[in-house]
Amino acid sequence: MRRHILASTSVIALILGSSHAFAGMDEAKAFLDKEIGDLSTLDRAGQEGEMQWFVDAAKPFAGMDIKVVSETITTHEYESKVLAPAFTAITGIKITHDLIGEGDVIEKLQTQMQSKENIYDAYVNDSDLIGTHWRYQQARSLTDWMANEGKDVTNPGLDLADFIGTSFTTAPDGKLYQLPDQQFANLYWFRYDWFNDEKNKADFKAKYGYDLGVPVNWSAYEDIAEFFTGREIDGKKVYGHMDYGKKDPSLGWRFTDAWLSMAGNGDKGIPNGKPVDEWGIKVDENSRPVGSCVARGGDTNGPASVYSIEKYLQWLKAYAPAAAQGMTFSESGPVPSQGEVAQQMFTYTAFTADFVKPGLPVVNEDGTPKWRFAPSPHGVYWKDGMKLGYQDVGSWTILKSTPDDRAKAAWLYAQFVTSKTVDVKKSHVGLTLIRESSIQHKSFTERAPKLGGLIEFYRSPARVQWSPTGTNIPDYPKLAQLWWQAIGDASSGAKTAQEAMDSLCAEQEKVLGRLERAGVQGDIGPKLAEEHDLAYWNADAVKKGNLAPQLKIEPEKDKPMTVNYDELVKSWQK
User: Fold this and answer.
1) Which among 219, 446, 469, 529 would be 20 to 30 A from 98, CA to CA?
2) What residues contact 204, with CB distance under 8 A and at least 6 apart?
3) Tens-place pLDDT, residues 430-470
């Protein structure tokens, strides 16, 4: 998840005893009384029944010291500071839940995969690694685990069908490799109050000939950015766009987190384009990566991809504060909440808690936000049936190098922190929703007006178009680090957008080529295709009923379209 988002969390200290000798239902009931109450999809009898199962299942492992790790975000802080001590008190299994930077989580994971030495008993790592885990076969298949070795420690009330993100953690072999723990999307963010101001609406209509509203496409987003940039509101000049441009690792996930798909890169497909995904990497019928460059049938340097970079650079320079070009992700994140930005193409919804703090310029006196989330607009190459944005899904992963008894104890903890007993409360703390039942809980209906459209989005049919990196990526850690360097060259002006993406696809193919030669991923690893020109591969795609790589569209601008936000929400409810 994205990366150094630290929000203040009020944590209730649970003094439930420290010795496993006293673990059991008394401790469970004290936890339910003090922490859960009616913030659960289970009634009290159901909560106690689930806790009794954990008490019984954990008995063979009482007294064990188990170590798990995740990145530092509000949801995981809550798990580490509240749920881990509660689990220890209830089960007698001592859990140390470490919180470290996301990059450090990946480094530890890679080290354990390479050394086969057990560093952590379970990891919460992004589902972006699903292709990596499937191809290297060093993570336990949870499907096999739950049916065999882990059957005795798999909660009969786990209810996998209730998780909204399991399609993202399922490999092409149909097996689940990761269990979602927290989930959030990148959505369009805008000043609802400014968009509903009568003078702003009239002036916009007079200038552009259509209604000011949520942009459906990039042409409308661009018009809105131009309209608000330099406009005076409440005595201040405001901006029509916000982004960041410093050559820094955070610039990489700015783009791997589905920017190219929003423009129309890749093929149709939910949750990811097939055979060409949103990174522009193509796979064959056996899910073997065959190329990234257009010359091998990929789309990383195709017209849609280059267009996405050019628009990013154009908007950053023309419509965002000048300082944005030198900012990183963490520096740019709080800027819209300071009250001088009209819209942002996408904002991580993990920022929601920070955007609704009392006293902010973007929050009304009654605690309701002056802003809203809405679906992101799409570029000129986008076609219906494509994914439209990114969803982060931090997920429990247990490596094969972890001994079985330790894996079982860690699996119990992973199920505890995602259980129906605790999930509603955890979701209120971190706002990283993973269960359909929690999303529909009455407490979120009551809280929804203060969350700016977050709940409405997650209850809408639109959410399926937001997904993490898919299974086409054979080694996420190696490939992801290439992006910020290439995009940084475009952002700094050292290379054109075309040159930057040509360089990126070439570097990605070097990694694919090395994996192919090494043979470490067997018959599901890369197998690079022959090279041909764009016209050849486009014709081949069309012949097979696919899209990518698309030919260049002239002009790269379609008719601007907007939609009224309130009408959009009503249509979801219907």
Assistant:
1) 469
2) 211, 212, 224, 227
3) 999 999 999 999 999 999 999 999 999 999 999 999 999 99
pTM for the whole structure: 0.93
**DSSP 8-state code for residue 285:** T
Is it the case that residue 498 has pLDDT exceeding 90? yes
The CA distance from 191 to 213, in Å, is 10
Evaluate whether 177 touches 170 at the Cβ level (below 8 Å).
yes
Contacts 24+ apart (CB under 8 A), 399-404: 399/109, 399/112, 399/113, 399/118, 399/123, 399/138, 399/139, 399/140, 400/137, 400/138, 400/139, 400/140, 401/112, 401/113, 401/116, 401/117, 401/118, 401/138, 402/118, 402/120, 402/121, 402/122, 403/118, 404/149
* Neighbouring C-beta atoms of residue 115, cutoff 10 Å: 10
pLDDT, tens digit (0-9, with 9 covering 90-100), for 140-178: 999 999 999 999 999 999 999 999 999 999 999 999 999
CA–CA distances in Å: residue 374 to residues 393, 444, 462, 539: 19, 18, 10, 36
Q: Can you read off the two tokens belonging to residue 103?
A: 């990059």
Buried (b) or exposed (e) across 261-270, using 16+ Cβ within 10 A?
bbbbbbbbbe
Peptide bond into 555 cis (omega under 30): yes
Q: How far is CA 369 from the centre of its chain?
A: 23
Tokens of 453: 């459209």
Close Cβ partners of 185 (under 8 Å, ≥ 6 residues apart):
348, 349, 389, 390, 391, 392, 457, 463, 466
Single-letter amino acid code for the residue at 152 = D
Please report, rounded to a whole number, the percentage of residues in the chain having pLDDT higher than 90.
94
Residues paired with 96 in a beta bridge: 67
Phi then psi dihedrals of residue 17, to 5 deg: 100, 150
Give Cβ neighbours of residue 446 (< 8 Å, ≥ 6 apart). Answer: none
Please state the length of the chain: 574
Distance of alpha carbon 320 from the chain centroid: 24
Count of CB atoms situated within 10 Å of the CB of 231: 17
Report the half-sphere exposure of 335 (CA within 13 A, side-chain side).
25
Q: Please state whether beta strands 65-71 and 122-126 pair in parallel, antiparallel, or not at all (unpaired).
A: parallel
Question: pLDDT digits over 320-365, tens only?
Answer: 999 999 999 999 999 999 999 999 998 999 889 889 999 999 999 9
> Which residue in 437, 435, 453, 455 sits closest to 445, CA to CA?
455
Q: Is residue 92 very low, low, confident or very high in pLDDT (cuts 50, 70, 90)?
A: very high
Torsion angles phi and psi, residue 248, rounded to 5: -155, 155
Measured between its terminal Cα atoms, the distance across the chain in Å is: 32
Round to whole Å and give the CA distance between 345 and 190. 9
